[in-house]
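cron nightly-structures :: item 1 of 1
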Amino acid sequence: MGTTTVTKAGEALRWAVDPTNPKRVSQSQLARDLGVSQPSVSEWVRMRSRPESHLRKAIELLLGIPEIDWMTEAELGVVERAAIEAAGRATAAPIPLPESGPDVTATDEPEAAVG
């Protein structure tokens, strides 16, 4: 079974409009192709907002990228914080066991052999 590479939306869009990209498309052209404003495309490129769901597939097809992760920077921050918190809980110090009762005595001396 093959694997699918997921590209972050900001990376994909920044590369699509990058002047060094031989297949570059301008933000204005992308906006015209999608029927949206250029400032909307700019917000997507900067990951400050994301396109409506009906536009996402069209963008993937226009850019030739099969699967794009459309999370915004704010959403990524929430996910990252949750992952860090979960990792912290997983590596937290173990819960201490209750102390032994009065009938158990702990010593540093080795047990004497019964013989």
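cron nightly-structures :: done
The longest strand covers residues 7-8.
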